[in-house]
Amino acid sequence: MPIAHLDPLASSIFSFMAIASLLLAFVMLGSRWLNNYLYAFAAESWVIAGLSAAVGFYGGFPELYLIAILTALFRGLFLPYLIWRIIRRLRVKREIHEILQPSSALVAGALSVVFSLAVAYHIGQSLGLAGTVAVLALTVMLSMKLIGFLMLAVRHEALSQILGLLVLENGIFLGAQILVPGMPVLIEIMILFDLLIVVACFGVLVRYLVAHVGSTSSLDLNRLVG
Amino acid sequence: MVGTLLIAMMIAPAVAAGACFVWRAPSAVERFNLIASIAVFVTAIPLAMLSASGPYHYWGDYIIVDMPGAWVILCTAVVYLLASIYAVGYMRLLNEEQDRLWSFYALFAGFALTVLFSAIMNSAGIYWIAIELTTLVSTFLVGFERAAESIEASWKYIIVVSAGISLALLGTVLFYWSGSFVLGPVFDMTWDTLRQAAPRMNPALVTLAYLLVLVGYGTKVGLAPMHSWLPDAHSESPAPVSAMLSGALLNGAMLGIVRYLAICDASGAGQIARTTLVALGVVSLVVGALFIVRQDGIKRLMAYSSIEHMGVIALGFGFGGPFGVAGALYHMLNHSLGKSLMFFGAGNIMRTFRTKEIGKIHGVGMRYPVQGSLWLAGAVAITGAPPFGLFLSELIILRAGIERAYHWAVYAMVVLLIVIFIGFLNHFREIYFGAQPEAGIRPRQVSRWCVTPMWLALVPLLLFGLWWPQDMWNHFAIIARVLASPPS
């Protein structure tokens, strides 16, 4: 798929979906209820699945349909289900001690988008791709990365941290669909399975945290210092 | 021949892990793991020697046996063997965990398998997955003792490392993207393909991708300032696991950085890549030195020493050239031996003194003349004093730095190594010679399983300090040449 000479319609669809998932990342950043994070994450995964299918259709990569189906199933249904089960077991329903208010977190998120745009614009220019969807994809990829890190940094609940990590992964996956649609399918499928194992491991660890530490907030993980 | 060895090496721990699930008796599972570790060690040595006539490709180019990879495998095999011997004695001391012992050995063999596996991955994407798997398996080993501290350490470990390593995935995707401008949208992302395409890649994009990969795998290597998980995980896991984390896992992740560095060299962005790696190495030494000087926990002391040594290895690869690469590879092996010895000693002392605090451990030399002296010798070795191997490898790395005109890094390295030497041995002065507090108590003894591996680590360490085999030197020279020049 020559990214520089893309069908304008395809280009708009890709841009729309990329921006939609970025917005959903902001929804996660601005909310403090664990359930809302989860719904936003599931919705984001469905958007990314749609993006995979769209790239597969316009770029002529039929194997991406498979990836789209697997993304929808794993990221859109199975992972949220696993996390929902973890939430149900916990007594915690929302973030209690935030370092940043959701409103300030949104501002920080906006700044990170500006920064990502600056980096992506520079890279896009040096590649001769300024003004194409590649710059947007790179921007969304980097800013979802930064937003994920922001969520990891300002949230304390174990579950927010898991979801923060999943946002990081979603950002990469989204960018990869647009920038490198030809990436070997084997790798993409393995990454999907890997994610599943990661979340399963997190589930087990959260149970240990509850049983042996008595808290799932990282504020209480303060025994090891120095 | 290489293929057969490779299959034997991979099957042994896999079978051992499987067998632990089936026969769960404590005496059986420790034997399975021990046999697997011996099998891995026996196959790793010829593999390292035969790799010189390689590289060998298998399974549709997804698997490669090349010299740097085989060297990391050798280091892993050494630590795996030593740690498996030690684990027999150490895990028997944990009386309360006997009914879960099978899961420990299953995970332990699985952990060794994932580290070995990462070293033979030829695809940059699958290498990432292998490294991620090492984290997932070892998290449960770190938290094996189920104390609140262990669980805290394993939670921090998995969160920090997963977040860090996701940057490496982003970098990997960007490398693929920059390759796709040269090779078209679909290609196999093997190390060689990337290197061959590198001269025509966009340098700005390669630099960005490399920095992401460096930070990502650097988190796993424990380079400061991404090291924050390392002291916790190393200090809270059972001692054999600490040895494996430090002596095997960190090298496995370093291999990734080295391979990407070779790609950067080929693309013409090598200078900035090297300087960043050198800078991270120096920062790791600074952090290591600061925390070693003022340290209360005995295993945390060893953990910060690991950060220091990873910094030294990063400096070696960052300086590059035949001396830099040879020194770094030699340092990998020496550090694997030395740090295993140190963690074994720390584990023994923790069990016998029932404390992790340095301030409460005194008079080890009087109480345990043999293993105490072994431990002290290990401390002298790990701080890079002659006549041990680490002195030689650090000297070679310094020489490489002078040759490649990284004078600032060389001066910093010398000063910091001296600070660490004084700080580290100052702790050992107290530990070894300090007055014995309660002389009336009869000291607990550890079994021979816990002391033998200390001998097995110290003797080669001393040998490598006094005698550097010519064949090994030639081996390193070839690796340096392979890393420096792109494959035809």
Architecture overview:
The complex is a heterodimer of chains A (226) and B (488). With 226 residues, chain A is mostly helical. Chain A has 7 helices and no strands. In chain A, helix 1 (8-30) packs antiparallel against helix 2. With 488 residues, chain B is an all-alpha fold. In chain B, 78% of the residues lie in helices and 1% in strands. Chain B contains 19 helices and 2 strands. In chain B, helix 9 runs antiparallel to helix 10. Chain B is globular and about 70 Å long.
The span between the termini of chain A is 51 Å
Instruction: Name the chain pair whose interface involves the most residues.
Output: A-B, 48 and 55 residues
Q: Which overall shape of chain B is indicated by the principal axes computed on the Cα atoms?
A: globular
Number of helices of chain B: 19
Q: What is the C-alpha radius of gyration of chain A, as a whole number of Å?
A: 18 Å
Structural class of the secondary structure composition of chain A?
A: mainly alpha
How many β-strand stretches of chain B? 2
Please give the largest β-sheet of chain A: none
Uncertain residue segments of chain A: none
* Cα shape of chain A: globular
Q: Sketch the topology of chain A as an H/E string, one letter per element.
A: HHHHHHH
Radius of gyration of chain B: 21 Å
Number of helix segments of chain A?
A: 7
Q: Which strand order does the major sheet of chain B show?
A: 1-2
Largest sheet of chain B: 2 strands, antiparallel
> What is the H/E string of chain B?
HHEEHHHHHHHHHHHHHHHHH
Structural class of chain B comes to mainly alpha
Any descriptors?
heterodimer; A: 226 residues; mainly alpha; 7 helices; globular; B: mainly alpha; two-stranded antiparallel sheet; 2 strands
At a glance:
Chain A is an all-alpha fold and 226 residues long.
Blueprint (SSEs and pairs):
The complex is a heterodimer of chains A (226) and B (488).
Chain A: H1 8-30, H2 34-59, H3 63-89, H4 102-126, H5 133-154, H6 158-179, H7 185-213
Chain B: H1 2-22, H2 26-50, E1 56-58, E2 63-65, H3 67-93, H4 101-119, H5 124-142, H6 148-183, H7 191-197, H8 203-221, H9 229-236, H10 239-267, H11 270-293, H12 298-319, H13 321-353, H14 364-367, H15 369-382, H16 389-403, H17 407-433, H18 448-466, H19 470-484
Antiparallel strand pairs in B: 1-2
